[in-house]
Amino acid sequence: METAFKNYRELIDKRLHSFLEEETERSKYCRENSKYPYTLFDPLNYIMSGGGKRVRPILVLLSCEAFGGQINNAIDAAIAVEILHNFTLVHDDIMDNANTRRGKETIHRKWDVNAAILVGDELIGLSYRSLLRAKTENITGVLRAFTDGVIEVCEGQALDKEFEVSADVAIDDYKIMIRKKTAELLRTSSVMGAIIGNADENGIRSISSYSENIGLAFQIQDDLLDVIADEGEFGKKIGGDILERKKTFLYLKALEILDGKRRDDFMFLYNSPNSSEDKIKQIVKLYNEICVIGSAKDEIAAYTAKANKNLECINNNSAKKLLENFSDMLLNRSY
């Protein structure tokens, strides 16, 4: 993360570490006369110690501050959304049969699928336990936003998997899917922060629109990084979306541009079970030839500009600048 957000990340990491340590010790104490479930807590601590960009919890804190709130009041909500995010990663990795995450073996590979499912379930419970510690007079509103976010993310993941086996997917369908799967959790983060910061309805609407557009840009950037990133920095295999035959922005844009035999050949190659490096190279070469990579960059820039437009209602200029820098950082990230 950029230096400007280092303090936020350190605060989040410190609170997350203490929360997980507390939960692990609580579990040991409650079970002192019985077996301690190492098959649950060992993989749980493994995934939670794997680092990450902390995008969502930072957004909780920035949104709280933007409306005059104290970040100490929002830190437990920030931790909650980071824990929830890790739940989605654990279960996504099972569904995608992924081998690595953040440069390490995925839980279902290092342990097994049963362990990964249980870890994901435990993470949901822990996320709510942390959220209930948030210091706000409107805990009901915070819980409602968080719960709605969980439901939307699950629906988005379902659409993502359905699209993998569907031939009839358009870019508009894709945007509905990423709005649910990716943008929603960013939107949820900012709305919770705004509520804890005592924002009015107009402020909540504005920060909600800001983060939703950032989320759309973030996912398209993820699609792009899957073919242009450095594998060491990215933390997972380059071309993974291609091998999984995901309906990414790049793939769907290519279908819009190509026609005739060239389109048919592209679809045949992309949807073939071939998992060779040559397949990835051929498709990336085509993406460059027909300028879909440039189209993706234009789309990311447009959503980022739209997001920043929604910050005009924020009177705190330093907080507004931080949010603008935050969206620019996501636009220019390499992993």
Rg is: 20 Å
What is the CATH top level name of the domain at 1-59 and 71-135?
Answer: Mainly Alpha
Give average pLDDT, whole number.
Answer: 92
- What sequence of helices (H) and strands (E) makes up the elements? HHHHEEHHHHHHHHHHHH
Helical residues, percent: over 70%
The percent range for strand residues is: under 5%
CATH fold group of the domain at 1-59 and 71-135: Farnesyl Diphosphate Synthase
Q: Mind telling me the CATH superfamily name of the domain at 1-59 and 71-135?
A: Farnesyl Diphosphate Synthase
List keywords for this structure.
single chain, 335 residues, mainly alpha, Farnesyl Diphosphate Synthase, two-stranded antiparallel ribbon, 75% helix, globular
What does this 3D model show about the protein?
The protein is mainly α. Helix content is 75%, strand content 1%. The chain contains 16 helices and 2 strands. It has a two-stranded antiparallel sheet with strand order 1-2. Helix 4 (71-96) runs parallel beside helix 7 (139-164). The model has no long low-confidence stretch (mean pLDDT 92).
